Amino acid sequence: MKMSVFDELKVDPLNYVTGLESPIGVYLRREMFTKETEADRALKRELYEKTVADQSTDGSWDQLFVPTANNLWNLALLGYGANDAAVKKGLDWLLSIQTHEYKGHSGFFYSNNRKDRRAMRSTLYGEFVPGCSLFYQTTYAIHLFHIFGFDSDRHVQTAVESYIQLWGDREWLCGWWCGSNVLRILIEHPLSRDSKQVEKGLEYLAKHQTETGAWKSLPFHHTFHSLSRSNHVSAKEQLSKAFPSLVKRQNQDGSWGRKERETATFLALDALKNSFQ
Question: How many structural domains does the chain have?
Answer without folding.
Answer: 1
